[in-house]
TrEMBL record:
GO cellular component entries: bacterial nucleoid
Source organism of this protein record: Candidatus Pseudogracilibacillus intestinigallinarum
Name the record gives this protein: DNA repair protein RecN
Gene from which the chain derives: recN
Function: May be involved in recombinational repair of damaged DNA.
Matching CDD domains: ABC_RecN
């Protein structure tokens, strides 16, 4: 769970540190005080895209750090961390994000720099954030199959993985098949074009390493005069009379005459003898090199012409000769496919047929698993909705007919969540029959169900209780508290019923520091909590009646909380 959150130079937040606890923590305060900014910061720790606009005006960078405490059963997090060589000590996981004014984003986990994708993969395993946008997304049927699959992921995800691999191969084969069936005239033009390219490559008669050898030879010819003068001078210093070799020979001969008189001299005599023979060998090699030096303008022109030809082919077909040969193999294969198009089409069709049969087998198993999961989800959702004062609601997972067993990206299923919230009304799509408040309750019901099945330890709600009041607001508060049996819950709310249900209440306020707006966070005491809830009732000033209402509400919520644990 999230135990500490530190935010520095982020939007209107200058420098704050928040300690979180188990249970339900609510964040309340006036609009614009920075409540949602705090959630934005946590979203960045979970891998959300960053923006330079997050950096506080006048500062160079924004910094966010979150400390998460893991439990023994959080093996799914530890396995991923271990895969990326991230050490976890004392069950602690520190996620960090730095955003610079220049747009650079630095991600760290336990002080190790990681990519954004790694931060996202691990971050989304420790925290789940739900906003009003997610509630709106519930109306998008594309999310329904994802939610159903997540409901029974242990049974469904392995089948999805197998199906995805088969479906991806099938799509690639279909694309290849379509390409071979393109317009005949286009095919003729394509064949002419790649045959010309093949002829051009073959005519060049390239050899691996040829360009490097020619470049070396060209450099020798270009610098012939300097090479000859310099190497010849070096040779002369070694081999001419009264120079290195002759003098060294005299020296080593002198020592050879007296080496038997002193063993120290013997050692030096042997070294000089060895050095003499090494220099003699070098001298001989330099003489041979000098003999190879010559200047032939015609040969230089031929080399330049050949290198130009090779470089021309490199620009067209590859960075080096090896890449050109790879391209040659590719177009030879394509020429063969075009010239024997019918044979290749038949072969592709056979391969596609085999893949379709294999994919259909997995898709049908996936369909059966989803059907089973759907029945269970329907029952659980209806129980949850009754708790949320949708006692007449009927929820159904509708599978669209697919008599032809058409294969889609996610199998043979197209799924729609259907609901009826009133007696006598037929089932219909969520978008057509559910109000904003009803959608919020359906999403909350789903979150409560998923909290029992998944292993995420921190769930965050960002104002999903908008548009409800009265007993519905109370039921939402109770449902949020039920989730705390399985996870830590953080919630931004404007509802006194939800605030009263909290175990911890944080008040977010704006204040002025050095003529700048900044965010202030207060962990409310019980008396302060009563006053804040009272203000939430009135919307303005705190009255005695509002305080009494707040006290009564807290008394009722405490009685409910005792029934949960």
């Amino acid at each position: 769970m999230l135990t500490e959150l530190s935010i520095r130079n982020f939007a209107i937040i200058d420098d704050i540190s928040i300690t979180f606890h188990e249970g339900l923590t609510v964040l309340t305060g006036e609009t614009g005080a920075g409540k949602s900014i705090i959630i934005d910061a946590v979203e960045l720790l979970a891998g959300a895209r960053a923006s330079v606009h997050y950096v506080r005006h006048g500062e160079k960078k924004a910094e966010i750090s979150g400390l998460f405490s893991l439990k023994d059963e959080d093996d799914h997090v530890k396995e991923v961390a271990n895969f990326y060589d991230i050490d976890i000590h004392d069950q602690m996981l520190v996620l960090e994000r730095t955003i610079t004014k220049q747009g650079k984003s630095i991600c760290k986990i336990n002080n190790k720099i990681v990519t954004l994708s790694v931060l996202k993969e691990i971050g989304q395993k420790v925290v789940n954030i739900h906003s009003q946008h997610d509630t709106i997304q519930l109306m998008d049927e594309e999310t329904h199959i994802q939610l159903l699959d997540a409901y029974d992921e242990k049974q469904i995800y392995p089948l999805i993985k197998t199906y995805d691999a088969l479906y991806t191969k099938l799509i690639k084969l279909k694309q290849k098949h379509r390409q071979l069936q393109t317009n005949e005239q286009d095919m003729v033009h394509r064949l002419d074009f790649i045959q010309f390219q093949l002829h051009e490559i073959e005519e060049a008669n390239l050899q691996i390493g040829e360009d490097e050898a020619l470049t070396d030879e060209r450099n020798k010819l270009h610098h012939h005069e300097k090479l000859y003068r310099t190497v010849d001078e070096a040779y002369s210093l070694l081999a001419d009379d009264k120079y290195a070799l002759e003098l060294l020979d005299i020296a080593q001969n002198n020592l050879q005459q007296v080496k038997d008189l002193d063993e120290n001299i013997e050692h030096h005599a042997d070294d000089l003898s060895s050095l003499f023979y090494q220099l003699e060998e070098i001298s001989f090699s330099l003489r041979q090199y000098i003999d190879t030096l010559y200047y032939d303008e015609n040969e230089l022109n031929d080399i330049e012409s050949r290198l130009n030809e090779i470089n021309h082919l490199k620009k067209k077909y590859g960075l080096n000769i090896e890449e050109i040969f790879k391209y040659k193999v590719k177009i030879e294969r394509e020429i063969d496919e075009i010239e024997h198009k019918e044979d290749h089409l038949l072969q592709l069709e056979k391969e596609m047929s085999v893949l379709e049969d294999e994919a259909l087998i997995i898709a049908k198993r996936l369909h059966s698993a989803r059907k089973k999961a759907a029945l269970s989800l329907e029952k659980e959702i209806e129980v949850e909705l009754k708790d949320l004062y949708l006692e007449n609601a009927t929820f159904s997972v509708h599978f669209k007919k697919n008599d032809t067993n058409t294969l889609y990206a996610k199998g043979i299923d197209q799924i729609t969540f259907m609901v009826s919230t009133n007696i006598g009304e037929p089932l219909n799509e969520l978008a057509k029959v559910a109000s904003g408040g009803e959608l919020s309750r359906i999403m909350l019901a789903l979150k409560n169900i998923f909290s029992k099945h998944d292993q995420i330890q921190t769930v965050i709600f960002d104002e999903i209780d908008t548009g409800v009041s009265g007993r519905v607001a109370q039921s939402i508060a109770e449902k949020m508290y039920e989730i705390t049996k399985n996870a830590q819950v953080l919630c931004i709310t404007h509802l006194p019923q939800v605030a009263a249900m909290s175990d911890n209440h944080l008040l977010i306020e704006k204040h002025e520091v050095n003529e700048r707006t900044a965010t202030k966070i207060t962990d409310l005491s019980n008396d302060e909590k009563i006053n804040e809830i009272g203000k939430m009732f009135t919307g303005t000033e705190l009255t005695e009646t509002a305080i009494e209402h707040a006290q009564q509400l807290l008394h009722l919520t405490n009685e409910f909380k005792r029934t949960v644990y």
